[in-house]
User: Fold these one by one.
Assistant:
Number 1:
Amino acid sequence: MNTFKRHLFFTFLLLTTSVTGFALEFNAPKGPIILTLGGNIDETNQGDSMVFDRDMLMALPSHEVSTDNPWNEGVQTYQGFNPIDLLAAVDAEGDMLRITALNQYITEIPVSDFQQFGAIIAYSKNQEIMSVRTKGPLMVVYDFDDYPELRSETYYGRSIWQIQSIEVFNSKE
C-alpha cells in the first residue's frame, strides 16, 4: 500500500473510531503468522485464539516512540501499535498481558503501562521492518527518554523482543 493510500486508510480509521469507538474486523491472515493472542478474548479466528500477520497488525492505529535504550546506540524511532487498540478490536477483557518470546522468555505487563507511559509493541525501527535478527518481529518499547523513572530492571525486563504470543488475563484471577 503506498503512503497516500495508507494515510487515507488511517484517516478513515481515525474518523470511524472517534465516532463509533474502535472497530476493526479481522479475517484470516494472508501472510505468515507473527502473533498469537489468547486468553480473555471474544473474537477468534483460529480455535480459541486470534492470529495475526504483519498486515493485520499494521491496520491498527500506528504510534511512534523515539528513545534511547540499552540495546541500541543513540535514539531510535520505533513504529507500532498500542495493545489497548488490539484488545479493543478483539473484545478482550483483562488488566495484564503475559507475553512470550520466541526463546520462551516470558514477562507480564500491566495494560496500564500502555496507557500511562505510551509504550507500544513495535514492528519497525527507523522505518525498517524488524526481523528476528533485529529483535523483531515485535518488541515492547517504552519511552525511556520521556520517562527516565522507567530506567530500571522492572521495565527493562518488560521490554521483551521477538514476541510470538500474548495472553490476556485479569490479575485478580
Number 2:
Amino acid sequence: MNQHELDVETNIHDEHPCVHNKETFLDITTFFRHFVAPRKPIAPSLDDIQLPDAITQDSLQGDRYDFQGIDWTARHSTRASVRESREIFETARMQPKLRQVRQWRTPTRNTDNFFSFQRMNTTHKPFIPHFQLRNLIASTSRNDVFYAARHKVMRTDASGSPATATLDLTKLVTDGQQFQVTTLAAMDDVLIAGGFEGEYALTGLSATYGTPFTLGRIKDRAPDSKSHITNHIHLCESRTNYTPQAVLCSNDFRLRVLDCGTNTFTHSFLYPTAVNCSATSPDGRMRVVVGDFQETLITNAETGQPFESLNSHTDDVFACAWADDGIHVATAAQDSTIVVWDARYWGQPLTVLYSELSIPRVLRFSPVGGGPRVLVVAESDDYISIINAQTFESRQVFDFFGSTAGISMTPDGQSLFVANSDRRFSGIMELGRAGWSEKRRAPRWEDKWEKEGMMVDWADEDGLHADRRVVCGWDERERRGAGLGELTV
C-alpha cells in the first residue's frame, strides 16, 4: 500500500480534510492490517473485536488484554512487538528535523509510578476537528467529565454512564458553518466551548436540565482575517469580582478576556500572529502566551504587554501551563521539546525535555493539594508522559493506540482522564493516583523533603490547610492510598 492509499483510508472519517495532518499516526487497525498482521497463520483483524462498554483492571486478565481491549495473543503477536514496529514506522515518516531531534535528545528515565490504570469507557467517542487542537475534555469531578463530540459537548462520569448533551450546538450556524467544538474548558460552575468561526457557548453547570445556554461571538473580528478559530480557552479567577474569566486564544492574532458573569469582553490584546494557548498565573497578575511564533511571551495580565520574551523553541508553540505554586511555567512546541521555566528568574530554563515520539499538544500541572507534583504531557498520538515536577529527571509513560483528544485532571488531583479518538478503539480512560500508601507509611520522608526545601506538593502542609484551592482536607489526604474503596463491610 502506498502513502496516498494510506492517506485516503485514514481520511475517510475526517469531517474537515482541509485541516487533516498527514503526519498523524495511522490508526492501529490500518497499521496492523498492512504492516504487522502475519500471513501464516492468518491473524484475525482488529475489526473483528467486540469491545465491551468498559474495560477495567480485572478485564485485562493479567497481560492478556491491553487497556483498549485488544488480545494480541489471538493475533499471533505481542503488544511489545506491535509497539516496536509502530515506533520504527512512524519515526521513518517524521520530518527530517524531528528525526534529528530524536537522535540528539537524552531520554528522561521512565521509572516513576504516579498513576495506575483504572478504567477505559469505550462507548464515548471524542472527536478532533483540527489536528493541532487537543483540549477537548474537561472535568470538574469524577462525576462530571465533559468531552467534545462534533457539534455537542457531552457529559459522563468515571463509571462510564451514558453520555448526555450538556451543550447541543447542532442547529447553530455561523457564516454558513455549523458550530463545531474546537476547544473547551470547565471550572467550578462554568463550562465554555469555542468554535471555528470565533463563536462560543457558555453555560452554568448548576443549571437545571434544559436551561438555555449563552451563545456569543468575538466582537472585534478583523474583516480581512483569514481565520477566526478559537484555538484554546482557559478559565481563571477574576481579581475584581467573584465570577470566572474565560481567556480565548484565537487564530486572528488576538487574545480576549471574557467576563463569564456578564458575558462581556473586558480585554482584547493583539499579538504578531495566531495565538495558540495561554495560561494565567495563580495570582492573576501574569500570563504566558504562545502561538505561531517561536518566542514564549510572559505578559502583564491586565495590559497584555510582554515584559519577557523567552527563546527556547525552534518551531510554533501549542501548549503552556502555569503551576499552582506560581513559580513553574511549562511550554511545548512542534519541535518536540517541553521547556520548564522558573518565574523568579527568566534568564534560562530550568530544563528542556522531549516527547516520546509524537508532537506534545497539551500540558497540565497537577493541582495544589493533589499530592506529589507532576507535569502531564499529552502527545498528539499514542503517549502520555507524567513527569516528576519535583526534579524533572524522571517520568512515567502510558502508551496506547490512537490520537489524543485531550487530558483533564480532577481538582483533587486523584484522577487523570485521557480522551482517545481512535477510529476503532476510542473512549475515555481514567488513571488514578498511585503510591500514596507507601508515602504515608513513612511520614518523616515528607518532613525531610520539606525541611530541605523540596516539598512533595506545591505547598507545605500548613500552606495546603490555608489554601482555598485545595479540595481535600487533612484527614482525607491522610487516608489516601489506604485502599478503603476496596474494603468490604
Number 3:
Amino acid sequence: MSVLVQSSHGWVLDARSFIDQGYTRCIRCKNNQKSRVKCCFKRQYYYIVKSHNSVNKSAAADGGNTEPLQKTDKPPKKRKRRHSELNQGEVDSQAFHEKIRSVIKEGTKSLVDSARSLGHLSGMSDGVTEPLPSQECSLAALCEMAKELPLVDDEEQEECTQLLVTEDGCTSHVDLFSRVTENRTDLATVVTLMGDEYVIPPDAGFLLSDFTRIQPLVHYGRRFDLIVMDPPWENKSVKRSRRYSSLPSTQLKRLPVPLLASPNCLVVTWVTNRPSHLRFVRDELYPHWGVEVVAEWFWVKVTSSGQFVFPLDSDHKKPYEVLVLGRYRSSAAENSTSTSEVPVEDQRLIVSVPSALHSQKPSLSDALKPYVGAEPKCLELFARSLQPGWTSWGNEVLKFQHTSYFTLTPSDDRGDAPEGEATEKPTASPVRSPGESVTVPPPRTDA
C-alpha cells in the first residue's frame, strides 16, 4: 500500500512503494529467452533530505514542478528586481496563497505528525549513496518524427490495439505510434523496444503519440471512470530550460475527453501555481468538456524528514501544487438514477516525498479509489510512466519505464505462474500484438 496515513485532512503517500508493488512478479524477455527478475525503482530518486530555504528568483511562481533537490554549497545567484511593484500575476498568486495557507500548514502538520508516530518520515538514511543516473528520453523526438508519416484513415485501420506479449510469452514487432499496446498478462514484463529495455507493468495499455495521432485511443473501445492529466503547461522556467515542449492552454480543449469519459467520470488535472492556469481549468476547460468542478486538492511536497521542500511562504516556488477534480456530466449521466457516486471532499492534501526527476508525480490511485467505484477503468493523459491496470497516453509515455530508473536483480520467485509463463487475463480488453525490436514510425509531441 502506498497510503501511510489517512485522515480527514488527506493522505500521506509513499510514492516509490506504489511503483515497486507493481513489479513484485516480473519476467524479462530478451532474445526470445525468459527469466524472472525483481524490479525496484531506484531509491535515490526519492531520497530528498534537504529543504530549499532559498530559491533562485528566476524560477517564477508559475512553475510548480519539483526540481531535483540536491545538496549544494554554492548559494543561488541573486538577480535584481526590475520593478518594485508586483505584477498582476504575482498579486493573484499571493492572494491565492493566503487563501489556502492555513489549510496547507495545519493539514500538513497533522498528517506529518501522524506519519512520524508510525515511524515514517523519520529522515533516517537507508544507505542511499549512489548518484542520480542521467537518462535522456528520446521518445518526444521520435514522436515529432512520426508526424511526417501519413495518417491512416479510420476505415483503413482495422486494428487499433496490439499485444505486447504473444501467446508463447515472447515479444515481437509492435507499432507504438498508431495502436494502443497492451500487456494483458498479470506479470510485469521487461521488453526491448526501439533498442532500449522498458519495464511494462501488468494489465497496462499505452499509446505513444501526440494530438495528431490520438485517434487510436478514441477507437480503443473503452470509456473511462477516471481520467488524470498532467499537461505540459507553459511557463518561463520551462521555456528557459527547454526540458520539454509546453502546450498553450487553449490547445487542451482539443483533447477528446467527452469521447473517452464514462458518465460521471472523475476528471483530475494537475495545475501549476499560476492563477491563470487554475482559472482556465475551472472556467474554460472543464465547462468546454461538460465537466463540473467538485473539489480542489493540494499535493504537498516534503523531505524525508517531513519538512516542506520549499518554505511555505516563499515568494517563488511553493511546496505544493493544485489538483482540480471534476465530474463529467453527460446527458446519459443526467438521465441516470445512479446513487452510487461518492461526493468528493474539498481541500484534501496529498503529502509525499517528491521524486528528484522533473515532473514525476505520485500516483493518485489509492487516494481516489473511494470516488471511482469498484474495478474502475483508468486513463492518464500526458503520462510519463505506466501504472498497473491503467491505460496511458503521451509523447513520453514510457519515459520513466526505462530500465535505467530501476534496479533489476535475478529472482527465483515463481509465484503462481508456471515457469517462464505470463498468464493472460481472460477479461482483458481487445488488444494487440508484441514488442521486441520495433518497426515503428518515428514520433511526435504532446504539444
